[in-house]
Amino acid sequence: MQTLDLAPIHHAHGDIVLPGSKSISNRCLLLAALADGVTDIRDLLDSDDTARMLEALQTLGVEMKQLAAHDWRITGCRGQWPVRQADLFLGNAGTAFRPLTAALAFSQGEYRLSGVPRMHERPIGDLVDALRQAGADIQYEGNAGFPPLHILPARVAGQHTLQIRGNVSSQFLTALLMALPLLNEQTRIEVVGELISKPYIEITLNLMAKFGVKVEREGWQAFTVPAASQYSSPGELYVEGDASSASYFLAAGAIAGGPVKVHGIGLDSIQGDVRFVDALREMGAVIEHGDNWISASAPASGKLKALDMDCNHIPDAAMTLATAALFADGTTRLRNIASWRVKETDRLHAMATELRKVGATVEEGQDYICITPPARLTPNATIDTYDDHRMAMCFSLVALGQTPVTINDPGCVAKTFPDYFERFAAITGAGA
Ligand SMILES: O=C(O)C1=C[C@@H](OP(=O)(O)O)[C@@H](O)[C@H](O)C1
Ligand SMILES: C=C(OP(=O)(O)O)C(=O)O
C-alpha cells in the first residue's frame, strides 16, 4: 500500500480550477445517452466514477467520441440500448449503479450489474422495490437488497403511481425520475418516509429539464413525469466545478490564512454542496464570491468557531466540516447524517476512529458526530482511509495544523479527484 507523508503546513493560499462535478457529469452522460440527438458535454470530470459510467455506456453500444481531455460527444439512443445483453462493472460509483439499474430495468435487455465488494454492501432494495412495481424483473445475485443484480427482459408499464422510500439514499429517487420518461406514460412517484439529501434531487430535476423533460412536483412528497416525455439533446452542456471537491480547498483557506479561491462554481450553483460555505461562514471564515468563483480566508481572530448543524442537505461536504472542526474553539456537532454509514465506508465510524488518532475527543452517535479538538494535534498520526476518497481528502487538512500526518492509500482519491494531492500541494506547498 502506498502512503503519503504530509509535512506541517503553515499557510494555504492560491487559486484552484475545480474538476467537473461528479453528480452532474454522470447524470449528463446518462441523459445524453437516453436522449434524441447528439450532445457535447464539456468539462466532464475525469475520474473512476465517470470512467465506470463511460465504460458502461460504451458496452451498451452508445456512440461516443472524446473531443478533448474533458469534452465528450454522446450520440443518444433514445432509450433503445443497441446492446441487449451485457455485464457491467460499476466499481463503487453510486451515481452510475443506481441510475443505470433503473434505465436498464425499463429496457428489454438482459444485464448483470456488479461492483467492488463495498458496492455489494451498499443498499439498493428500495429502488428495486419501486422498479418491480412497474413490472421490472430484477433478481439479486447475492444478498437480497444489495448488488450484484441480474436484470431480465420484462413487460414494464407505466403505473399511475409508484412509491419509493427516500430515507436511505436520494439516488433511488434520482434513478427512478431519470428512467421514467422511457415508459412514455404519465407516472406519479410518491416518496415514502423522509427524503434525505434533498438538494441532489434538484440537480436531477434541473438536468432533466435541460434535456427537455419537465417534472411536476408537490414539494418533496410527489413527482409526476408527464406522458410523452422524450429526452432531447440540448446540443452542448457545460459541467460545473465540483462543489464537494471545492470544500477541501475552501476549508484550507478558512483554517490556514487564505485566501484560497476555487474557480468553476459560484453561489448560484445547482449543487447543494455549495451550501458548505454557509457552514464555513458560521464558523467565522471570510467568504467572497463572484460569477464563477468562491474564496475563503481565515477569520480575523485566526480561530474558527465550533458549529452545531443539521448536515442532511450536504452529506458529502459535511465530512470536510468534521476535520475542519479540529481547528475550532469548542465542540462541533454534525447532525442528521445517518447516510454516512452506507457510503464508501461506514463514514461515521471511520471518521470517529481517525479523528481520535490526531487527539480529538469524539462522540459517535447513530446519526451524528461530536468533535472536540485537542489542545494540540497529535503529530505523525497515520490515517487509514478505508478506500474512501473523502477520508483521504478530509484528513489532508490535519497538516494545516502545522502537524505532520501520514495518509494511507492516498490513491483512493481517484474515485472523484485523481490529482487531489498535487492540487493541494499547489496551495500549501505540501509534499505530494
Ligand atoms: O445523487 C448524487 O449525485 C449523490 C447523492 C448523495 O448520495 P445519497 O443520496 O445517498 O445521500 C451523495 O452522497 C453522493 O455523493 C452523490
Ligand atoms: C457517497 C459518494 O459517492 P456515490 O456517488 O458512490 O454514492 C461520495 O462521493 O461521497
Automatic annotation (TrEMBL):
Subcellular location: Cytoplasm
Domain of life: Bacteria
E.C. no: 2.5.1.19
Entries under InterPro entries matching the protein: Enolpyruvate_Tfrase_dom, Enolpyruvate_Tfrase_sf, EPSP_synthase, EPSP_synthase_CS, RNA3'P_cycl/enolpyr_Trfase_a/b
UniProt pathway annotation: Metabolic intermediate biosynthesis; chorismate biosynthesis; chorismate from D-erythrose 4-phosphate and phosphoenolpyruvate: step 6/7
Pfam families, sorted: EPSP_synthase
GO terms for MF: 3-phosphoshikimate 1-carboxyvinyltransferase activity
Gene3D superfamilies: Enolpyruvate transferase domain
Keywords annotated in UniProt: Amino-acid biosynthesis, Aromatic amino acid biosynthesis, Cytoplasm, Transferase
UniProt: phosphoenolpyruvate binding residues: K22, G94, R122, Q171, R347, R390, K415
GO biological process annotation, one example: amino acid biosynthetic process
GO cellular component, one term: cytoplasm
The Enolpyruvate transferase domain, residue ranges: 10-423
Catalytic activity: 3-phosphoshikimate + phosphoenolpyruvate = 5-O-(1-carboxyvinyl)-3-phosphoshikimate + phosphate
Coiled coil: none
Residues annotated to bind 3-phosphoshikimate: K22, S23, R27, S169, S170, Q171, S197, D316, K343
Annotated function: Catalyzes the transfer of the enolpyruvyl moiety of phosphoenolpyruvate (PEP) to the 5-hydroxyl of shikimate-3-phosphate (S3P) to produce enolpyruvyl shikimate-3-phosphate and inorganic phosphate.
Classification via HAMAP family: EPSP_synth (MF_00210)
Subunit structure: Monomer.
NCBIfam families, A to Z: aroA (TIGR01356)
Family from the record: Belongs to the EPSP synthase family.
Protein name: 3-phosphoshikimate 1-carboxyvinyltransferase
Source species: Methylovorus glucosotrophus (strain SIP3-4)
